[in-house]
Specification:
With 178 residues, the chain is an alpha+beta fold. Among the domains are: 60 residues, no CATH class; 64 residues, no CATH class. It is built from 6 helices and 10 strands, in the order E-E-E-E-H-H-E-E-E-E-H-H-E-E-H-H. A hairpin with a 2-residue loop joins strand 9 and strand 10. The longest helix has 13 residues. The radius of gyration is 33 Å and the shape is rod-shaped.
């Protein structure tokens, strides 16, 4: 039987090939990935289609199965879009990508309207609390006299007791405040 031109899953039959050692007919096939394969006609025509490609179809199926719900299969998976969807100014929307087996990249919406992608761990530990708008607001309030470390006309938060002087150190130890 000549199967030339027919398509079986990811294989297109190019033409007949030499029979196998038991005399069963075989066909030369071109896979979608570009490789040429010789397959038994009986395997191509079988109802369960045991030969579907050069092997790339099974690798593709496995990668799809593993990638789609990789994190949801893990016993410690936390659906951030469910009950724990809000931390800081961010609201979790959906998982976007999986960086490694345990860490998903989540798409989150900030209160200011921006959409950012955040790792699950950074979202849960609140190391990432906004798209960057919170840092900008905090930086504006910490300039000059609004800085809590600003005393006596200069910022003393980064100074140690020697650089600022013994007077300031004595004031702090004795509990006398300005």
């Amino acid at each position: 039987m000549n199967l030339t031109g027919r398509v079986f899953t990811w294989l297109r039959v190019i033409g007949p090939a030499t029979p196998n050692r038991w005399g069963k007919p075989r066909s030369e096939c071109l896979c979608v990935c570009g490789k040429t394969v010789i397959a038994c006609d009986a395997d191509l025509l079988r109802r369960d289609k045991s030969t579907k490609s050069c092997g790339c179809y099974n690798r593709w199926l496995t990668s799809q199965r593993n990638h789609e719900n990789r994190e949801t299969k893990h016993p410690k998976f936390q659906n951030l879009a469910g009950r724990k969807q809000r931390h800081g100014r961010l609201t979790a929307i959906r998982p976007v990508n999986f960086k490694s087996f345990h860490h998903a990249l989540w798409e989150c919406r900030c209160e200011c309207g921006h959409i950012v992608r955040v790792l699950r761990g950074a979202f849960l530990r609140e190391t990432t609390r906004s798209c960057g708008c919170l840092k900008n607001e905090v930086d504006v309030t910490r300039v000059g006299t609004n800085n809590p470390n600003y005393r006596h006309g200069r910022c003393i938060g980064d100074f140690d007791r020697r650089s600022y002087g013994r007077w300031w150190y004595r004031q702090q130890v004795q509990g006398v405040s300005q």
